[in-house]
What does this fold into?
Amino acid sequence: MKTPTIETERLLLRPLVFEDCYEAFERWTSDPDVARYMRYNAHKSVEETKEWLSTVDEESDTAYDFAICVKAEGNYLCGSCGVYFSKRSNVWNVGYNLAKDHWRQGYGTEVMTALVNFLKNDLKVTAIEGMFANENVVSGHVMKKCGFETVGQIEDYKFDGVTKHDCELLRINVKGEKKKFKLSNGIEIEPIGYGTYLAEEGSIKKAVNAGYRYFDTASFYKNEEMIGKELKDSGLKREDLFIASKIWPTEFGYKEAFEAFERSINKLQTDYLDLYLLHWPREKGDSQWKSHLCQTWKAVCELYNAGKIKAIGVSNFLPHHMKVLEENFEILPMVNQLELHIGYMQNYAVDYCRERNIHIQAWSPLGRGRIKENPFIVKMAEKYMVTPEKLMLRFLNQQDISIIPKSNNEERMKANLDIYDFTIDEFDMSLLLSLPQLGFSDEHPDL
It folds into this structure.
């Protein structure tokens, strides 16, 4: 991309060119007071400034260098600024310097704001770094005013590779918006629920304390009774909870589905469910699965129409399973819960559901711990200064997929809810979506 020209209220940021070396030397690169705060050393001759500008490239993928010009002074060249991609952190960095006679006029804030907006809006960057020399408190104030937050200290060196340059490292992470997802019937669901498979006694109380209000269980989990009791003991109002359960294939059938539903709500100590799912499309080896599936879905639809269930859906259904329901019923599932995580995104099934306005939900969003140590995922998590788990959950959330992580550890429960303080940029999302298969559980509805 060619370096653009950016206009602010008082400044013109135009591409910095090699020919600027004479004015730059005269006005700031030869000034030791300016160089004191910059990575370069005070230039002894214009030749040094020429060498400093020798790498400027108007068409670059990794650096954009601008001359800072004051419009009211006839586009007077008073400094330089730019952004560059750091190999050290895999994050874009920003910086600026101004001639001493233009310090403390608010130009630094104006320049930094323009550079941050250029990175966010033009380059679609969601993580930005910057640093300032510890003694340069004014630059630190400017950066924090523009939204940067301190990360820590970093030891840097001037371009001579010898002169120490202790700096404070700062970061802007574009934050995400926490929002509920709306199902096809208008019901809203939380983006993050608490998965209760293998949940230990007392874990529901911990989850409530951590902030969860969405609880996902199933008859197969054999824990509905425990969940019902612990939710009752929590003191929360029923209308403040979202409870989802599932019917197992061995319970399929018209009459059997009504009975299975009654067993679940009795154990959960509630008279309705917010979401009821068919756990798997078929029992292994069942040659009459289509008939059994339709009988079950008919019963579930009747429970939905009677107001016993707020929303109905399926789990682990692939397009050929969904078509059975589509061809025989007017009411389609509102949710399909699938194994989804980095390295296993089931795009065909996801796209099929989205075309029919069926909300996608992810079980095993962390790949059951099988992929968190993958070097690619670890490296990308380091880029955003988050854990691999947090990266994996945000990856799904950014695709408008609700997630059902599970843990018996209260600190981990809280961490799984705290995923909105950063955003994975478009380029990295594309990389993650393009990874070869990773971490598949080997659980498949037909195999």
